[in-house]
């Protein structure tokens, strides 16, 4: 049973990483002017949803979706800062903290 739980969370981690990769590729695509980057973004989001479907086999849907979205938002914000020099203000980071807190509360419920 522990191995199955590990696999569900491994799929969740893959879904999150693929979602963040999709967002990065979409940014690099420059409004889909760069078609290869745009196609990679689409491929990553499709792969992310595929991994998410496997994760929800063993993780409650509300928890899985909150993890996927919340952690994806946090990592995308960090990637935006590291790769594109985008900076959130205090209120933006407070919003992300609220999302992460909500995800943790769902996970603990």
Automatic annotation (TrEMBL):
<keyword id="KW-1133">Transmembrane helix</keyword>
<feature type="transmembrane region" description="Helical">
    <location>
        <begin position="6"/>
        <end position="26"/>
    </location>
</feature>
<dbReference type="GO" id="GO:0005886">
    <property type="term" value="C:plasma membrane"/>
</dbReference>
<dbReference type="InterPro" id="IPR037185">
    <property type="entry name" value="EmrE-like"/>
</dbReference>
<dbReference type="GO" id="GO:0015199">
    <property type="term" value="F:amino-acid betaine transmembrane transporter activity"/>
</dbReference>
<dbReference type="GO" id="GO:0031460">
    <property type="term" value="P:glycine betaine transport"/>
</dbReference>
<dbReference type="GO" id="GO:0015220">
    <property type="term" value="F:choline transmembrane transporter activity"/>
</dbReference>
<keyword id="KW-0813">Transport</keyword>
<keyword id="KW-0997">Cell inner membrane</keyword>
<dbReference type="InterPro" id="IPR045324">
    <property type="entry name" value="Small_multidrug_res"/>
</dbReference>
<dbReference type="GO" id="GO:1903711">
    <property type="term" value="P:spermidine transmembrane transport"/>
</dbReference>
<feature type="transmembrane region" description="Helical">
    <location>
        <begin position="62"/>
        <end position="84"/>
    </location>
</feature>
<dbReference type="GO" id="GO:0015297">
    <property type="term" value="F:antiporter activity"/>
</dbReference>
<comment type="similarity">
    <text>Belongs to the drug/metabolite transporter (DMT) superfamily. Small multidrug resistance (SMR) (TC 2.A.7.1) family.</text>
</comment>
<comment type="subunit">
    <text>Forms a complex with MdtJ.</text>
</comment>
<dbReference type="GO" id="GO:1990961">
    <property type="term" value="P:xenobiotic detoxification by transmembrane export across the plasma membrane"/>
</dbReference>
<keyword id="KW-0472">Membrane</keyword>
<keyword id="KW-1003">Cell membrane</keyword>
<dbReference type="Pfam" id="PF00893">
    <property type="entry name" value="Multi_Drug_Res"/>
</dbReference>
<keyword id="KW-0812">Transmembrane</keyword>
<feature type="transmembrane region" description="Helical">
    <location>
        <begin position="38"/>
        <end position="56"/>
    </location>
</feature>
<feature type="transmembrane region" description="Helical">
    <location>
        <begin position="91"/>
        <end position="108"/>
    </location>
</feature>
<dbReference type="InterPro" id="IPR000390">
    <property type="entry name" value="Small_drug/metabolite_transptr"/>
</dbReference>
<protein>
    <recommendedName>
        <fullName>Spermidine export protein MdtI</fullName>
    </recommendedName>
</protein>
């Amino acid at each position: 049973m522990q191995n199955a739980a590990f696999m569900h969370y491994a799929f969740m981690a893959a879904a999150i990483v693929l979602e963040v990769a999709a967002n990065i590729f979409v940014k690099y695509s420059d409004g889909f002017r760069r078609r290869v980057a745009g196609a990679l973004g689409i491929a990553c989001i499709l792969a992310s949803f595929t991994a998410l479907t496997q994760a929800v086999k063993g993780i409650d849907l509300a928890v899985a979706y909150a993890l996927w979205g919340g952690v994806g938002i946090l990592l995308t914000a960090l990637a935006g800062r590291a790769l594109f020099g985008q900076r959130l203000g205090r209120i933006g980071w407070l919003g992300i903290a609220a999302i992460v807190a909500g995800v943790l509360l769902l996970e603990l419920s």
